[in-house]
Amino acid sequence: MRVALMPDSVPLSGPRLIEWLCARIEPFGLFTGNLMTGLSDLSPHPPRSCRFRERTTMATATARAITAKLDLMFDAIDTDRDGHVDWSDHQRLIDRYLNTYKVGKDDRRAHALVVAYQMYWIELLRHAGGGSRLDREQYRRANRALSLDTSRFNMVEGIPHAVFDIMDTDGDDSIGQAEFRRYLQVWGVSDRYAINMFGQLDIDGAGVVSRREFVHAAREFFYSSDPCAPGSMLFGRLGI
Ligand SMILES: [Ca+2]
Ligand SMILES: [Ca+2]
Q: Sorted alphabetically, which CDD domains does this protein's record hold (predicted)?
């Protein structure tokens, strides 16, 4: 029996059909719309070996991957280990950026970083429904909601650009290996997968990470269902 309106090359059933369908859905991830377009502009097809590690739906895989990534970020930012993220955690992060990259508090780039994180924090609290701190589940939900809501602040653009300006200490509008190592130091990331990410973030092989490649990695972190995508491992390998 043949299915009408489908080209002869389409497998009709079984694992090959699932793979054929998913290979065409994957570039769009779970979500559609212009938020996702940035994910496919540099590397539309993640490595085949990284796909479909488990037999599950794409929606489930995406939700699981993003939750795992947000948990890693929660653990990295909750440096006082009180089980909540609040503004003081972000203030310490900002201070680590400025100290590690030796940027003065009165520097224009420092002001931009503070404003970006203040906007991010205000928007997280708005999506959480108020309060002054977020537990792990509230942090997950608020980040998910904010990553899709650019009405007041586009966090996947605003923070990466402000951070990039801090990281680019020699002002050549790109991130070299030494500049990237300081980034991992700021976040306290020692996972070897994250350390080795530099080469994969450098998509065009220029030997440096461009601004566009860095923002692309941030998009992968918040949107990609692929746990092996370079942006997905900015805070280490996902335990999923
Ligand atoms: Ca905390
Ligand atoms: Ca640089």
A: EFh
Q: Per the CATH hierarchy, to which homologous superfamily does domain 62-233 belong?
A: EF-hand (1.10.238.10)
Domain ranges of the chain: 62-233
Two tokens, residue 140? 């997950």
Give the distance (Å) from ligand 1 centre to CA of residue 124: 15
* Token duo for residue 122: 């205000």
Report CA(105)–ligand 2 centroid distance (Å).
20
Share of the chain above pLDDT 70, in %: 75
Query: What pTM does this model have?
Result: 0.76
Q: Of the ligands numbered here, which is closest to the C-alpha atom of 208?
A: 2
| Mean pLDDT score across all residues of the chain | 81
Q: How far, in whole angstroms, is CA 94 from its chain's centroid?
A: 18
